[in-house]
Write a structure and sequence with these properties.
The chain is an all-alpha fold. The protein is built from six helices and no strands. Helices cover 79% and strands 0% of the residues.
Length: 106
Amino acid sequence: MTGAVQKSAVQRAMSYVTSKDFRTYLMSTHFWGPVANWGLPIAAIADTQKSPEFISGNMTAVLCVYSGLFMKFALDVQPRNYLLFACHFANEGAQLMQGYRFVNYH
């Protein structure tokens, strides 16, 4: 990128971040719901360091279905909620990893 293009991109980003639309977004459930949901994939990723004997196969399966459904929901709502989608995409991957560890252990 050239300097002029970079400057223009930074100006557009700053103008959006300081806009009323962005402040409204930060105060909405479209933002805080996914932020709160990030605890699920973070916990699942942290659990990969623990022994697989503690993994609940039922809970792992339910969380896989839950994240799959919420990924679809995140793309179906208007406006699309890409932050919620990313959260559940990460959780789906972490739960699938836990499921693999569970199956290998048992």
